[in-house]
Amino acid sequence: MIDLYYWTTPNGHKITIALEELGLPYRIVPVNIGKGEQFAADFLRIAPNNRIPAIVDHAPVDGGAPLSLFESGAILLYLADKTGQLLPQDLRGRNDALQWLFWQMAGLGPMAGQNNHFGHAAPEKIPYAITRYVNETARLYAVLDKQLSGRDYIAGDYSIADIASYPWIVGHVRQQQNLDDFPSLKRWFERIAARPAVQRAYALAPQINPAANGPKTISDDERKLLYGQDASTVVR
């Protein structure tokens, strides 16, 4: 059994998709980041960066004590290695998929996240920041569109590279991106959305967070919790 510490964010969706695809038994432990539950001591012992997702695998392949992990990319890689699925086993295929996994972690996720922050969450609308991140998101969409030209998935077969990237494209409208401008990306997006495991993963979201599929609003208290952190908020 795997405990998944989860909230209904793109990074959270990555892990529910992977677990559903792999058919691994898991239990969701909700961590409501809008209420500050990511600062609870029990959670920080698993995820010292106070971010979801995190997992505890109670049956690691080495037969040892339960293993905890934070960071969505590390978790995806762990699950792929644990099962021998969703990641090519040959040297070149594996590293092709991994470079796109890290592309998402270092580029698409952070840039789309800043896009969303300055476009929707920031209390002050700063035109330069909004334009900067909308344009960078578009550039990254174009990179992915080029990679997907003539292929069904990012790195050959369906892999954790696709699982990592898809949730960050779900919010394309809020990111001010038109998928019609990226035809190969659009075909890929629709292909991933049609997968039963992906549909099951997203169906979980409103069960955990009833507001998951509603209008994306943020209160002042939530804004302070999510975006008002500095060195003093790290429990040491």
TrEMBL record:
<dbReference type="GO" id="GO:0016740">
    <property type="term" value="F:transferase activity"/>
</dbReference>
<dbReference type="InterPro" id="IPR036282">
    <property type="entry name" value="Glutathione-S-Trfase_C_sf"/>
</dbReference>
<dbReference type="Pfam" id="PF02798">
    <property type="entry name" value="GST_N"/>
</dbReference>
<dbReference type="InterPro" id="IPR010987">
    <property type="entry name" value="Glutathione-S-Trfase_C-like"/>
</dbReference>
<feature type="domain" description="GST C-terminal">
    <location>
        <begin position="90"/>
        <end position="212"/>
    </location>
</feature>
<dbReference type="InterPro" id="IPR004046">
    <property type="entry name" value="GST_C"/>
</dbReference>
<dbReference type="Pfam" id="PF00043">
    <property type="entry name" value="GST_C"/>
</dbReference>
<dbReference type="InterPro" id="IPR004045">
    <property type="entry name" value="Glutathione_S-Trfase_N"/>
</dbReference>
<comment type="similarity">
    <text>Belongs to the GST superfamily.</text>
</comment>
<dbReference type="InterPro" id="IPR040079">
    <property type="entry name" value="Glutathione_S-Trfase"/>
</dbReference>
<dbReference type="InterPro" id="IPR036249">
    <property type="entry name" value="Thioredoxin-like_sf"/>
</dbReference>
<feature type="domain" description="GST N-terminal">
    <location>
        <begin position="1"/>
        <end position="87"/>
    </location>
</feature>
<protein>
    <submittedName>
        <fullName>Glutathione S-transferase</fullName>
    </submittedName>
</protein>
<keyword id="KW-0808">Transferase</keyword>
